[in-house]
Amino acid sequence: MGLSQKNLEEAIRLLENLLATQKGAGFWLVVCGGSALLAQEIISRSTEDVDDLRTLAPTSVEIEAAVRWILENIPVLAHRDKIPDLLTHLGHAHIIPKFQG
Description:
Blueprint: H1 5-20, H2 33-39, H3 51-56, H4 60-73, H5 83-89
């Protein structure tokens, strides 16, 4: 399942709820690629790419922290099984064993 307009809107609502619990903390969010196009209603098709994340060139430490946060805070994540593929795509396959078993 790709990211559709409906999925994006739900993700933004969930993010809004999460950020509301972090009173006083400042946040910068980057919305890019297909998500940005969906948010601006420029496109309506679903999107599944992560190429814009590759451009940010996150370190292994940043990727590991992000995956740990996702696994701890989104227990109903539908595509947990795709995390190894994502890590491989981002060039961080070497940290896959940290999330197995």
